[in-house]
Write a structure and sequence with these properties.
The chain is mostly helical. It is 48% helix and 11% strand. The chain has eleven helices and eight strands. It has helices at residues 24-39, 44-56, 75-89, 138-154, 157-167, 190-198, 202-218, 233-237, 253-263, 269-274, 277-302; strands at residues 2-6, 11-15, 94-97, 102-105, 116-118, 125-127, 223-226, 229-232. The protein has a two-stranded antiparallel ribbon with strand order 1-2. A hairpin with a 4-residue loop joins strand 3 and strand 4 (102-105). Helix 1 crosses helix 7, helix 2 packs across helix 3 (75-89) and helix 4 runs antiparallel to helix 5 (157-167). It is globular. The N and C termini lie far apart (54 Å).
């Protein structure tokens, strides 16, 4: 947390220094505010100032948006201080590409800030996965990964909606093998689920996609605990460690499903897709350790 002291009043305010320190409501406010600023042609600084006012609890700033007093000779100093605070404390909110003159939200948390969402002009809600996709099935995960990769290549809205459909659906009475109460997704109902996803607001879709991309990145580089064992995911996808030679979202996940089905560890590809994502990661980790043991034995014999 960043500590801001207001010397005139002696008050101290703590504001987040990264996305992980923000509550779900703060994340939602940031995405909605950013969407409004972009739609009105606002600048990155204007967005940061709105967020600063929000964190400081200033509900009614002046019309200028930069300061809340009108004293000759003081306005400029407050304006400069406000911009300085935004630069020093809130730069983490944005990822700025100066070469391409582009700016976007730099959301990088694996905690899901939008576990459920209401469709536009609908009373029904869609329900998403838990943080770090812990209750996602492997089939949902690999299909959503491929759909995201397709969307990043085509930028088509239908590809984006399909990706979200594998993650967010209406609630069902029965839970799947991963423990989530949503209907199974297949060719018979993917179109209906995608239509539901199309009814979400743009800022809602933005949260979902950036959060899912952040989870994908972490699942290829971080560590997780599975059945009491620490799994080093980086080693599973690192060429140097002999892991998967994946290079991009979704690459290799379908091949992995085929390989596990061939090994008959669980069953057919359909049965593999029904398994929780973390169960499949556990199998990958077991195979990785087994491979390393074989390599060590081979080196010993060769020596």
């Amino acid at each position: 947390m960043n500590r801001i002291e207001i010397y005139e009043t002696g008050a101290t305010v703590l504001i987040p220094s990264c996305w992980d320190e923000m509550s779900a409501s703060q994340v939602v406010y940031a995405f909605r505010t950013y969407s409004e600023c972009i739609s009105k042609g606002g600048s990155p600084l204007e967005f940061q100032i709105k967020m600063l006012h929000y964190f400081l609890g200033i509900s009614k700033p002046s019309a200028s948006g930069l300061f809340w007093v009108k004293i000759p000779g003081v306005e400029e100093r407050i304006c400069e201080n406000t911009a300085l605070i935004c630069d020093k404390c809130l730069s983490f909110l944005l990822d700025v590409d100066e070469d391409r003159l582009q700016c976007r939200l730099s959301f990088d948390s694996v905690d899901n800030p939008l576990p459920e969402v209401r469709m536009k002009r609908r009373l029904r809600r869609l329900y998403g996965p838990a943080s770090l996709l812990q209750d996602l099935t492997f089939g949902e995960f690999r299909h959503a990964s491929v759909a995201l990769q397709t969307f990043l290549r085509t930028a088509k809205e239908e590809d984006l909606n399909e990706c979200i459909a594998f993650l967010y659906r209406r609630r069902s009475r029965h839970s799947n093998r991963a423990g989530r109460c949503v209907p199974d997704i297949d060719n018979s109902n993917i179109a209906a689920a995608a239509r539901d996803a199309s009814r979400l607001e743009p800022w809602q879709k933005n949260i979902i996609i950036l959060w899912f991309a952040s989870c994908l990145k972490y699942l290829q580089s971080g560590t997780v605990d599975i059945d009491g064992e620490t799994v080093e995911l980086r080693k599973l996808f690192s060429q140097e460690d002999g892991g998967s030679r994946s290079s991009g979202y979704g690459f290799g996940w379908s091949d992995l499903a085929v390989q596990i089905a061939k090994d008959n560890v669980i069953g057919s590809i359909g049965r593999v897709d029904e398994e929780p994502l973390f169960s499949i990661l556990g199998i990958m980790w077991h195979n990785f350790k087994e491979q390393k043991q074989y390599e060590a034995i081979a080196k010993t014999h060769k020596a």
